[in-house]
Amino acid sequence: MVPFYKRLFFFLTLSSLLGACGFFSQENDYDEETIDKAKKSVERFIADNYEDIESVEITRSYESEMGGLTIEGTVNDGATEFTAGVRSNFSIGHLAPGEDFPDMKEACKDQICAY
Fold first, then answer.
1. DSSP 8-state symbol, 112
2. CA quadruple 53, 54, 59, 61: dihedral positive or negative?
């Protein structure tokens, strides 16, 4: 019979290794072409649906914890930030605008405008 402390040590070591593997596997699994298409979709979506957009700058793209592609950036030369979730068909699943983000265009409030 293996002593309790040896079993506990084995269990903790195994748990740590498996946890580390899960943590390090959270890298971006998307190729550059997919990321570029997603960035363009986000830029078009914001320009088509929000007022007074002068510029959209993408600052980061990564795979979310749920496996979706997430794009972060700023509008109007860094005036405010946003985070967007991009679906596999490159439509925008959600947009989380930062404080002072431009208002949505009136025509786009009831139904998302084309992008």
1. P
2. positive
Residue 74 has what pLDDT? 97
**Which two structure tokens, joined as six digits, stand for 94?**
């959600």
Burial of 52 (0-12, 13-18, 19+ CB in 10 A): exposed
Separation of first and last alpha carbons in the chain: 66
At residue 108, what is the residue type? C
pTM of the predicted protein model: 0.72
Whole-angstrom Cα distance, residue 30 to residue 10?
A: 35
pLDDT tens profile 2-14: 677 666 666 667 6
DSSP 77: T
